[in-house]
Amino acid sequence: MINSKRDTMISLAFFLLAAALGVFLRLLYVFDISVDYRYFVHTHSHIALLGWVYIGLTTLVYKLYLEKCNVTKKYRNIFWFTQLTLLGMLFSFPFQGYALFSITFSTLFLFASYWFTWFFIKNVSEKFKNTKSYKCIKASLWYMIISSIGPWALGAIMSTLGADSIWYRLAIYFYLHFQYNGWMILALFGVLIFILEDQEVSISNDSFNSFFWAINLGIILSFFLSVLWTKPASIYYILGGVGSLLQCIAFLIFIKLLVKSRMVLSTVFSGFQKKLLRTVGILLLIKFLLQIASAFPYVANLATTIIDFTIAYLHWTFLGVVSISLFVFLDYFKLIKIPKKGYYIYLFGFALTELLIFYKGAVIWLDFIFFEQYFIALSIASVVILIGISYLFIANLRRGVKHDFKNRDILS
């Protein structure tokens, strides 16, 4: 029997670790600590993306599509192999950055993700294969595989052109783009469509096909936004702009679909879950609008030359859109319980860090002067996020312990 609640707690533990590493990175600007900053950035990003988001999403996908398919042992092998690769990265990146052991474990993780994708497509029940949600999830997993071209290319680039080559940065951007726009966001759309289908909401083929083609073309074309820092030919700005516009259109089509289903949704989701979904909707719309803006040369130049704007955008996507969506769905499927107090602490910390990071970018852009205690304020804001996630983790840990004790009482 697969314990999906325990697996979700493991993903949440990785989120807690990533948040703690984020605080540590902020404190490096406040205190003189003799470590390699880049090594811990690599650790932080890998544990956040692959520990929290990947494990959280794949646990959801397993529960929705494979839980009743009698493939427990095979999935368990994949799951624990993946944990081994994550622990390997956790204990190698801080000490050596990209080197033998960290690269080995990162490569093994890629194989684990391929293994999960193959396992999912091979074992999913026939009753799901014609559903619209499955179509989204399957496409998202293919984007995850496509994204891995970036890490594979890094080795060849470093050994031939070097880390200073523009291709090195392009490979990283390729990976990140297809991870968050392709794999993560499309998978989250798929989970919401699964809920609608599970509630027997009728989704017209025309509406879904319009959404599906717009979102996929948008994902592919908007990658060109990630090359604009090289100041390429005008056609790349146009392609990137069209891609971001298509993503925005797909989002509006999806919202129209949700509005039509609002009577069902109002009974399916709790009031708190609906608040979280509305927050995600606002964050996602702003993300798409920022992408459209970044297709213009002046904004593209700002976004790529001032690293704080890039960091603020990535955090907006991962800590905002993706993580809050995961909160909603993990809560909805009763894998964890999101306590309101813990969530609002997290949300406040997220908003505060975004404000401060964007502020720094604006100060550099406008050539203003930082307020003296900026890095202390940013460290405190990061601690607030850590407190929020800690609250979520401890609350669910206690809930799990109480549940175990109840089960023991029943059995005895």
Number of domains: 2
SS element count, helices? 16
| Strand percent estimate | under 5%
- How large is the radius of gyration? 21 Å
Regions with little confidence, pLDDT below 50 for 5+ residues:
408-412
On the 0 to 100 scale, the average pLDDT is 91
Topology, number of strands: 0
**Could you tell me how far the N terminus lies from the C terminus, measured between alpha carbons in angstroms?**
21 Å
Q: Helix fraction?
A: over 70%
Main beta sheet, described? none
SSE pattern, N- to C-terminal: HHHHHHHHHHHHHHHH
What does this structure look like?
This protein is mainly alpha-helical. It folds into two domains: about 1-130, no CATH class; about 135-335. It contains 16 helices and no strands. Helix 10 (about 235-260) runs antiparallel to helix 12 (about 270-295) and helix 13 crosses helix 14 (about 305-330). The chain is globular. Mean pLDDT is about 90; it is low at about 410.
Task: Lay out the secondary structure.
Blueprint: H1 4-27, H2 37-65, H3 72-90, H4 93-96, H5 100-123, H6 132-147, H7 149-160, H8 166-198, H9 205-221, H10 234-260, H11 262-268, H12 271-293, H13 297-305, H14 307-332, H15 340-366, H16 374-411
Helix pairs in contact: 1-2, 1-16, 2-3, 2-8, 2-14, 3-5, 5-6, 6-8, 7-8, 8-9, 8-14, 9-10, 10-12, 12-14, 13-14, 14-15, 15-16
